[in-house]
Structure formats: structure tokens, C-alpha cells
Prior knowledge:
Layout: E1 12-21, E2 28-36, E3 40-44, E4 54-57, H1 58-61, E5 62-67, E6 85-90, E7 95-99, H2 103-117, H3 134-159
Amino acid sequence: xxxxxxxxxxxxxxxxxxxxxxxxxxxxxxxxxxxxxxxxxxxxxxxxxxxxxxxxxxxxxxxxxxxxxxxxxxxxxxxxxxxxxxxxxxxxxxxxxxxxxxxxxxxxxxxxxxxxxxxxxxxxxxxxxxxxxxxxxxxxxxxxxxxxxxxxxxxxxxxxxxxxxxxxxxxxxxxxxxxx
Length: 180
């Protein structure tokens, strides 16, 4: 089944049939697509396909999305309005043309695609802390210690003992060897 999730596909935002325009002959073909919160857009030949025909990473490769009347170079399939068109522009000049069956479906696809593209990190599941290894704990502790040391050295060199931030650009008074 196409709804199985991988490591990057934690939450499915939208799955359904949508028209995809082929690049060679510009013909519209109905395909099953899945958008995940992890940023993947997967295209399947049918709903029951187990492996995707094509996978796009929306977070890394997507440059721009055009909707509706912004897609001036596209003609929608028969009996479908131009408000249902979507054009995804990827890095390297690649382009993906999609068309939903109606305006309501197009707005749902639009929401799913824009949310999948957003730079928000995925929420960490609550149970992940329980499954941490000793190595993960040691790594986290060393990172905390490094941050504390960096703060200490910054305060020592920049602020002095009075915790006042001093500018390195101000010249010292002649005869005064201290930073104050």
C-alpha cells in the first residue's frame, strides 16, 4: 500500500488522486500522490502501488509554487477550471504541473504543499527520550558543557569581572594597563 511511511514521512498531510502533466507530450495523467510533513511528495501510478514512480523533496529542492491563474502556460484537462492548476518549480529548472479535480480539492493540495515546504522542524515524539542510548546522553552533556565554557570565556574576556560588556574598539587611556 502506498500509505506506508518512511523515516522522513512521519505525518501524511494529503493523499489522493490528482492530474499530473507529463513533460514529453504534455498529456494529463491521473496519478496517486502523497504529501508528507517531512517534505516528501511521492507519485504512484495507482493507489495500490507499493513503490513510488517519483519522489520530490519539497524542503530542499522546491523553489516556488504557482497556483491557479498564475499558471499562464498551462491548459487544464477537459471540464476542469484554471483555478485548479498548480505548478511546482524545483532547482535545476525542473517543473511539475498538477491539476486537482475541483477548487476545494485544489485548496487542500495547496495547504498540504505549502505546509510540507515550510522550514518548521518536525515535533519530537514524547517517547524518544526513553529510547535514548548512553552515547546520546554523553553527547548532549558535552554540548551543554561546551556552551557553558564558551559563555564563561566570553564573560571573562569581554566583560571582565564586573560583567560589563566593553567594546574592543575604544582606545585605552595612556598609562592604564587594565581593561577598565
